[in-house]
Amino acid sequence: MCSSCVMSSCQYGGKSLRDVSDTLLESFFFYFFFFMQSGAAPRGNSRQTQPIAVVSQPQPVPIAVEYLRGAPGLVCCPHCSHLVTSKVTHVPGTAAWCWCVILAMAGLICGFCLIPLMVRGMQDTHHSCPQCGNALHVHKR
Protein backbone atom coordinates (compact mmCIF):
# COMPACT_ATOMS: atom_id res chain seq x y z
CA MET A 1 0.00 0.00 0.00
CA CYS A 2 1.13 3.51 -0.56
CA SER A 3 1.95 5.50 2.56
CA SER A 4 -0.71 8.20 2.01
CA CYS A 5 -3.64 5.74 1.85
CA VAL A 6 -5.39 4.07 4.73
CA MET A 7 -8.18 2.42 2.81
CA SER A 8 -7.68 -0.56 0.54
CA SER A 9 -9.59 1.18 -2.28
CA CYS A 10 -6.58 3.34 -3.18
CA GLN A 11 -6.47 4.78 -6.69
CA TYR A 12 -3.17 2.96 -7.21
CA GLY A 13 -4.71 -0.43 -6.49
CA GLY A 14 -2.73 -1.21 -3.34
CA LYS A 15 0.64 -1.02 -5.10
CA SER A 16 3.74 0.03 -3.25
CA LEU A 17 5.20 3.47 -3.76
CA ARG A 18 8.09 1.98 -5.73
CA ASP A 19 5.72 0.23 -8.17
CA VAL A 20 3.74 3.43 -8.64
CA SER A 21 6.86 5.49 -9.33
CA ASP A 22 8.12 2.88 -11.82
CA THR A 23 4.76 2.97 -13.63
CA LEU A 24 4.83 6.76 -13.75
CA LEU A 25 8.40 6.75 -15.10
CA GLU A 26 7.48 4.26 -17.83
CA SER A 27 4.49 6.40 -18.82
CA PHE A 28 6.64 9.53 -18.93
CA PHE A 29 9.27 7.93 -21.15
CA PHE A 30 6.61 6.47 -23.43
CA TYR A 31 4.95 9.85 -23.95
CA PHE A 32 8.24 11.69 -24.23
CA PHE A 33 9.85 9.47 -26.83
CA PHE A 34 6.73 8.65 -28.83
CA PHE A 35 5.13 12.07 -29.01
CA MET A 36 8.32 14.12 -29.24
CA GLN A 37 9.64 12.08 -32.14
CA SER A 38 6.36 11.92 -34.03
CA GLY A 39 5.47 15.57 -33.42
CA ALA A 40 1.97 14.66 -32.22
CA ALA A 41 0.51 16.01 -29.01
CA PRO A 42 -0.98 13.61 -26.46
CA ARG A 43 -4.80 13.48 -26.41
CA GLY A 44 -5.97 13.19 -22.84
CA ASN A 45 -5.73 9.85 -21.07
CA SER A 46 -6.52 7.63 -24.04
CA ARG A 47 -3.91 4.90 -24.27
CA GLN A 48 -4.08 3.50 -27.75
CA THR A 49 -1.51 0.94 -28.71
CA GLN A 50 0.39 1.81 -31.83
CA PRO A 51 1.56 -0.90 -34.22
CA ILE A 52 5.21 -1.68 -33.77
CA ALA A 53 7.35 -1.88 -36.87
CA VAL A 54 10.10 -4.46 -36.58
CA VAL A 55 13.05 -3.78 -38.83
CA SER A 56 15.48 -6.63 -39.24
CA GLN A 57 18.95 -6.38 -40.67
CA PRO A 58 19.98 -8.84 -43.35
CA GLN A 59 22.47 -11.44 -42.23
CA PRO A 60 26.05 -10.71 -43.32
CA VAL A 61 27.34 -12.91 -46.11
CA PRO A 62 30.88 -14.26 -45.81
CA ILE A 63 33.22 -13.53 -48.68
CA ALA A 64 35.80 -15.82 -50.24
CA VAL A 65 39.26 -15.58 -48.67
CA GLU A 66 40.79 -14.51 -52.00
CA TYR A 67 38.72 -11.31 -52.04
CA LEU A 68 40.08 -9.92 -48.76
CA ARG A 69 41.73 -6.53 -49.26
CA GLY A 70 42.90 -3.85 -46.82
CA ALA A 71 40.07 -4.10 -44.28
CA PRO A 72 38.89 -6.99 -42.10
CA GLY A 73 36.25 -9.17 -43.72
CA LEU A 74 33.73 -11.81 -42.70
CA VAL A 75 35.07 -15.18 -43.88
CA CYS A 76 34.69 -18.86 -43.16
CA CYS A 77 38.10 -20.04 -41.96
CA PRO A 78 39.30 -22.97 -44.11
CA HIS A 79 41.31 -24.34 -41.16
CA CYS A 80 38.80 -24.35 -38.26
CA SER A 81 35.55 -23.80 -40.26
CA HIS A 82 34.38 -20.95 -37.99
CA LEU A 83 32.62 -17.88 -39.37
CA VAL A 84 34.95 -15.07 -38.23
CA THR A 85 35.96 -11.50 -39.01
CA SER A 86 39.58 -11.67 -40.06
CA LYS A 87 42.28 -10.16 -37.87
CA VAL A 88 44.38 -7.69 -39.86
CA THR A 89 48.05 -6.74 -39.46
CA HIS A 90 49.95 -4.41 -41.75
CA VAL A 91 53.54 -5.15 -42.76
CA PRO A 92 55.72 -3.03 -45.07
CA GLY A 93 55.59 -4.64 -48.49
CA THR A 94 57.68 -4.68 -51.64
CA ALA A 95 56.32 -1.31 -52.80
CA ALA A 96 57.41 0.37 -49.55
CA TRP A 97 60.91 -1.07 -49.70
CA CYS A 98 61.31 -0.11 -53.39
CA TRP A 99 60.33 3.49 -52.59
CA CYS A 100 62.80 3.51 -49.69
CA VAL A 101 65.61 2.50 -52.02
CA ILE A 102 64.55 5.06 -54.66
CA LEU A 103 64.38 7.87 -52.08
CA ALA A 104 67.75 6.88 -50.59
CA MET A 105 69.35 6.91 -54.05
CA ALA A 106 67.77 10.32 -54.67
CA GLY A 107 69.64 11.64 -51.65
CA LEU A 108 66.90 11.61 -49.01
CA ILE A 109 68.80 9.98 -46.21
CA CYS A 110 68.68 10.84 -42.48
CA GLY A 111 65.43 8.94 -42.09
CA PHE A 112 63.36 10.56 -44.82
CA CYS A 113 63.78 7.50 -47.02
CA LEU A 114 62.00 5.46 -44.30
CA ILE A 115 58.70 7.35 -44.65
CA PRO A 116 57.22 4.82 -47.15
CA LEU A 117 57.57 2.11 -44.51
CA MET A 118 55.00 3.94 -42.37
CA VAL A 119 52.47 4.72 -45.11
CA ARG A 120 49.52 2.32 -44.73
CA GLY A 121 48.80 2.36 -48.47
CA MET A 122 52.20 0.80 -49.18
CA GLN A 123 51.94 -1.97 -46.63
CA ASP A 124 50.86 -5.54 -47.25
CA THR A 125 47.76 -6.65 -45.36
CA HIS A 126 48.00 -9.98 -43.55
CA HIS A 127 44.64 -11.55 -42.65
CA SER A 128 44.50 -14.26 -39.99
CA CYS A 129 41.80 -16.19 -38.14
CA PRO A 130 41.19 -14.89 -34.59
CA GLN A 131 39.97 -18.37 -33.51
CA CYS A 132 42.83 -20.62 -34.61
CA GLY A 133 45.49 -18.02 -35.51
CA ASN A 134 46.26 -19.46 -38.96
CA ALA A 135 47.01 -17.17 -41.90
CA LEU A 136 44.05 -16.66 -44.24
CA HIS A 137 45.31 -14.33 -46.95
CA VAL A 138 48.00 -11.75 -47.74
CA HIS A 139 46.95 -8.73 -49.82
CA LYS A 140 50.12 -7.43 -51.45
CA ARG A 141 50.57 -3.85 -52.61
What does this entry look like structurally?
The chain is an alpha+beta fold and 141 residues long. The chain has two domains: 1-41, no CATH class; 65-139, no CATH class. The chain has two helices and five strands, in the order H-E-E-E-H-E-E. It has helices at 17-38, 94-105; strands at residues 74-76, 83-85, 87-92, 123-128, 135-139. The strands form two sheets. A three-stranded antiparallel β-sheet has the order 3-4-5. The chain is elongated and about 80 Å long.
Give the quaternary arrangement of the chains: single chain
DSSP strand content:
15-25%
C-alpha termini separation: 73 Å
Q: SSE string, helix = H, strand = E? A: HEEEHEE
Decide which structural class fits the backbone: alpha+beta
- Uncertain runs are 1-10
Number of domains: 2
Number of DSSP strand runs:
5
Radius of gyration computed on alpha carbons: 31 Å
**Reading side by side through the largest sheet, how are the strands ordered?**
3-4-5
Shape: elongated
Quote the average pLDDT.
76
Largest beta sheet, briefly?
3 strands, antiparallel
Helix content range of the residues, please?
10-25%
Number of helices: 2
Subcellular location: Endosome membrane; Late endosome membrane; Lysosome membrane
Protein name: LITAF domain-containing protein
Organism: Oreochromis aureus
GO molecular function: zinc ion binding
